[in-house]
Amino acid sequence: MVAVHSTVRGPALGGCRMWSYDDSRAAMRDALRLSRAMTHKSAVANLPLGGGKGVIVLPPGARLDARARRDALLDFAETVDRLQGSYITAEDVGTSARDMTIIAEGTRHVTGLARAQGGSGDPSPSTALGVEAAILATCERVFGDRSLAGRSVAVVGLGHVGLRVARLLARRRAKLVVTDIDRGKRAEAEKLGARWTTPEKAMTAAVDVLVPCALGGVLDHHSVPGIQAPAIAGAANNQLADEAIADLLAARGILWAPDFVANAGGIINIAVELEPSGYDPARAKERVRGIGDTLRGIYDDAAAGAMTPLTAAMELARKRLAAASA
Ligand code: NAD
Description:
- The structure is a single chain.
- The strands form two sheets. Strands 8-7-6-9-10-11 form a six-stranded parallel beta sheet, sandwiched between helices.
- It starts with a strand and ends with a helix.
- It is built from 13 helices and eleven strands.
- The protein folds into two domains: 2-37 and 49-117, 3-Layer(aba) Sandwich (Rossmann fold), CATH 3.40.50; 124-262, Rossmann fold (3-Layer(aba) Sandwich), CATH 3.40.50.
- With 326 residues, the protein is an alpha/beta fold.
- The longest helix is centred in the N-terminal third of the chain and has 21 residues, at 24-44.
- Strand 6 (152-156), helix 5 and strand 7 form a beta-alpha-beta unit.
- Nicotinamide-adenine-dinucleotide binds next to helix 4.
C-alpha cells in the first residue's frame, strides 16, 4: 500500500517499508503516520517534496523466499506506477538498493538505486553525516562549544546509521559509550575504543550527549526522568512516545534535536538524485551538512518564542506548507 500525505511542495517522496503487521489496519495506520512525518521532514529540510510512504505488508513471522520477494516488489511497483509520479519510492526499513532495482523494472518513479546505476545508493551514510551535524549544533547550544574532543557520548543502536555515527564521533575524539541488543556488534564497538554497556544503562548514562539510533518511542514518561545527558540528538524516527514528552524534556533542561530534523540526511541525499543535473555526492554532502544550520535556526526560534524545539520545527514546517499551498 502507498499513503500520500501531501504533494503541495512537490511529489511525495518516502521509502518503501517491508514489515510484518498483525493486520492491514495496523499497516495502514503506520503508513499514514510515517507519510505525515515525511511531509514535515521534507518541509523543514526545505526540499521541493511532499510526504508519502509505501508499505509492503508481511503477515507476522513471514519470511519471503527470493521469488516471492521479487513478486511482492513488482506488485508494489505496479501500485507506484499507477500514481504517475505523485509518489516516488525509495528504500526503507526492510528494503535495499537491490530491491529498488527490481521496483525499477515496473516503474520509473523510484530513487535510491545503487550508485553503479546512477542512483544515490544506501542513504545511511548521509543520515549519519546529518546526525553528526545535529550533534555539533546541539553541543554548541548546550555547552557553548562544538568540539567533541573529550566529550562523552552514548550511542544507542549500532545498525546502519548508529555504527557510522559512532565512527564519525570517534574520529572527533569523543569518549564513546555504546550499546545494541545484538551483542555481535560489540567487537566493532571495541575497535573504536568505545565502552560497551547495556541499552538500559546507556539511556541513563552520565554523559554529555545521548544519541538514540535504534527504535522509536524511546523517550517516554518512564525513561526521561532517568536521563542524565543535557543534550539528545539521534537518528531514530519517532523518538518521543507522544508530543508532550517534548515539554517534559524542556522542563528537565534537556535540549532535544527533533528527530525529523536530525535524521533528514538520507532524504536530502536522495533529493539530489531528482535535481536536473543528477546525483552528485559532493553537492549532496554539502546539503546534508546544512542540517546544522537548520537546527541552529530552530533553536533560535524556540528560544525567542519560549517554545520547545519540537514546536519550533513544526511551526517552520507549517509555514512552508502554507506558503506552498498559497
Ligand atoms: P538498523 O536496523 O540497521 O539498526 C538498528 C539497530 O538498533 C540494530 O543494530 C538493532 O539491533 C538495534 N536495536 C534495536 N532495538 C534496540 C534497543 N532497544 N537497544 C539498543 N539497540 C537496539 O536501522 P538503521 O537504518 O540504522 O536506522 C536506525 C534508526 O534510524 C531507525 O529508527 C530508522 O527508522 C531511523 N532512520 C534511518 C535512516 C537511514 O538512512 N537508515 C534514515 C532516517 C531515519
